[in-house]
Specification:
- This protein is α+β, with helices and mostly antiparallel strands.
- About 60% of the residues lie in helices and about 5% in strands.
- It contains 14 helices and four strands.
- α1 crosses α9, α10 packs parallel to α13 and α12 runs antiparallel to α13.
- The radius of gyration is 30 Å and the shape is elongated.
Length: about 425
């Protein structure tokens, strides 16, 4: 295996107080932000309501947009401008409008209709007698072309105009980001002749916005999902505690679970600091983080147990230091490659995966650090408090819980062998 360090000799346990201090600072910063903001920012999955993703031809005036929404009785709506990297900015052409649904009897699409009405009052087509090409679908556009038949195809018009309509809308959605600002731009589309362009100009007008997507979740469903997400995370932690307590000792399991719990709390704090919202995909990322961090911790714990069988006359802190140093190259290799992968996903994965990948970016860094900076020092502190930290001694090694069928020669196996 690639080794980044040749026989490192870092005193990790001697720096435990710095690891604890760093964790305290991160936890205080994140959770102070959460308390000041009166909680985490939940997405539509947990809060319930209607989320409308709107792209404009030009960066919209948010104050004007808020005023229009107030005119539709949506004054408490949340408006977030995002750019292609998913970071909030006031000069973005894309806006997320969230309308919380508080009345269970309200029709699920009523909020969407009111948002569209508000947008149409200030950004709709000027000629109301013509439909908006930016809001047209392939079927409606093909019907218009087939009726007017600008290519004179007669009986063969159906399939040809269906294909032409798809090409026109593909150009609108990909090359123009979903919003056409000039119908003359369509002349570059394959199959759009001057006659076709003339029909489009005569039949359609151009609005200044398009709806990229709409999500609707009822408030009761959102609350239930939030409770289930909390229980799922706690069940995962409890299951890992039981497994590690059985595989090693209960103190190892408790230290590992506390370290993972620490990872989750810090990641949630970063979500509050950078104003990311919590959704179902984020819960999936947090559960992924729990498993990843736990795996890294178990690798270190397993090496500690192996070294305890061989280095019985060294202090437990020295055994832990040596175990972490022996697995350091492996930790950097696996965590580093995983971090690069999720970083690319965060930078280039788009708005849908932004929060999911951000949770993994933060979680992998914090989870790797907590394995040797939080979990291992907690076990050392417990052994010192119990009076077994000076020398491992000839008796049963810490973490070397005897199991049925394990013979004495097997317990003296060299480190690294299974």
């Amino acid at each position: 295996m690639i080794e980044f360090f040749k026989e490192p000799n870092i005193n990790w346990m001697g720096k435990a107080k710095y690891f604890y201090a760093l964790s305290v600072v991160l936890l205080l910063a994140g959770w102070t932000s959460i308390f000041l903001k009166h909680g985490l920012r939940y997405g539509i999955d947990f809060k319930g309501g209607t989320n409308v993703d709107v792209r404009f031809a030009q960066p919209p005036d948010v104050d004007q947009l808020r005023k229009a929404l107030s005119g539709q009785g949506l004054g408490n709506s949340e408006i977030q401008a995002v750019n292609d990297t998913g970071i909030a900015t006031s000069r973005s052409n894309e806006v997320l409008i969230f309308v919380e649904q508080k009345d269970q009897t309200e029709a699920e699409d009523a909020s969407k209709t009111r948002v569209l009405n508000a947008l149409s009052t200030i950004y709709g087509v000027k000629d109301s007698s013509k439909p908006d090409l930016n809001a047209a679908n392939a079927s409606a556009l093909a019907t218009t072309l087939n009726t007017r038949d600008p290519l004179g195809l007669s009986t063969n018009a159906g399939d040809r105009y269906q294909q032409l309509a798809r090409r026109i809308l593909a150009y609108r959605d990909t090359a123009k980001g979903g919003v056409l600002t000039n119908l003359n731009d369509l002349s570059t589309v394959d199959g759009v002749t001057p006659a076709v362009l003339a029909v489009l100009k005569d039949s359609y007008a151009l609005g200044q916005f398009t709806i990229q997507g709409v999500e609707i979740v009822g408030p009761k469903v959102g609350g239930e999902l939030r409770r289930q997400a909390i229980f799922v995370t706690l069940y995962a932690l409890a299951g890992m505690l039981v497994y590690i307590a059985f595989r090693f000792e209960w103190v190892y399991g408790a230290a590992a679970v506390l370290a993972v719990f620490h990872d989750v709390l810090i990641t949630l704090g970063f979500f509050s600091l950078l104003n990311f919202e919590i959704s179902l995909t984020v819960i999936a990322a947090l559960l992924t983080l729990v498993g990843y961090s736990m795996n890294d911790t178990i690798v270190i714990f397993d090496r500690i147990r192996e070294n305890n069988r061989l280095l019985r006359r060294e202090s437990f802190a020295d055994v832990v230091n040596k175990s972490i140093n022996q697995t350091l190259s492996r930790t950097i290799l696996t965590s580093g490659l995983t971090f690069l992968t999720v970083l690319v996903l965060f930078l280039m994965g788009g708005q849908v995966l932004r929060a999911f990948s951000f949770a993994l970016v933060v979680g992998i860094v914090v989870g790797t650090y907590s394995s040797f900076g939080i979990a291992a020092p907690l076990v050392v502190a417990w052994n010192r408090w119990r009076g077994q930290g000076a020398v491992a001694g000839p008796g049963p090694a810490a973490g070397n819980k005897p199991r049925g069928g394990e013979s004495a020669p097997a317990r003296l196996a060299p480190a690294g062998r299974r």
